[in-house]
Amino acid sequence: MNRALRGRSIDTVFVLIVFSIFAFSVLMVLMLGAGVYRNVNDMSREGQQENTALSYIWSKTKNFDNADSIKVGDFNGVSALFIDERLGGTDFRTVIYHHDGWLLELFSEMTLEFSLEDGRRIISIDEMNFESISDGLIRVTTGNRSLLLSPRSSLNETSGLAYP
C-alpha cells in the first residue's frame, strides 16, 4: 500500500506542477497582451491627435482665397502660421502655433502684442512646425504626418491634405 500511496503522491505533485506551469503561462500571456494593447492604444491616440490638429489647421485656412492672407513667420521665437483678414475696416490676425505641448490659436487686432501663453489651447500635441516651401505653398508637419497648404489664388488649386 505504501507504493500505491507514493504513486498517487507523485501523480498529485506532477498534476500540481503542470497546473502551475499552465497558470503561469496564462498570466504571462495576459500581461504581454495588456502591454501590447496599451502601446497600440497610445500610438492610435497620438496619430488621432496629429490628424485632428492638421485637420483643424486645414479648416482654418481653406476659406482664405488670397495668398497674401496666409504666411509663415516667427511668433515670439516659435514657428507660427499667420492668417490676416480685414473685418469692418479693422485688420485682424489669427496666429496658430505650438507651445508647451499644445497647439494654440490667438485671434486679435493686428497691431496688438501678445505672449506665447496668451493663446487659446486647441489640442495637446507633441510637436508642430510651419515652413514656407515656395511662394504660396506651406508645409505643416507634426510627428509623422504633414499637411500642404496652398491658397487657391497662389497655385490655382484648392488647399488640401497631403500625407507622406
Q: Would you mind describing this structure in some detail?
A:
The protein has one domain (about 1-164). The protein is α+β, with helices and mostly antiparallel strands. The model is unreliable at about 155-164 (pLDDT under 50). Helices cover about 40% and strands about 35% of the residues.
Give descriptors for this structure.
single chain, three-stranded antiparallel beta sheet, 2 helices, alpha+beta, 164 residues, rod-shaped, disordered C terminus
Question: Which radius of gyration do the C-alpha atoms yield?
Answer: 29 Å
**What form results from the Cα inertia axes?**
rod-shaped
Number of domains: 1
How many helical stretches?
A: 2
Strand order of the largest sheet: 1-2-3-4-5
Beta strand %: 25-35%
Count of strand segments: 8
Average pLDDT works out at 81
Which consecutive residue ranges, at least 5 long each, have pLDDT under 50?
154-164
Alpha carbon gap, first and last residue? 77 Å
Helical residues, percent: 25-40%
SSE class:
alpha+beta
Major beta sheet, specifics?
A: 5 strands, antiparallel
- Reading the helices and strands in chain order gives HEEEEEEEEH
Mind sketching the topology for me?
Blueprint: H1 2-61, E1 70-75, E2 78-87, E3 90-99, E4 102-109, E5 120-124, E6 129-134, E7 137-142, E8 145-149, H2 152-155
Antiparallel strand pairs: 1-2, 2-3, 3-4, 4-5, 6-7, 7-8
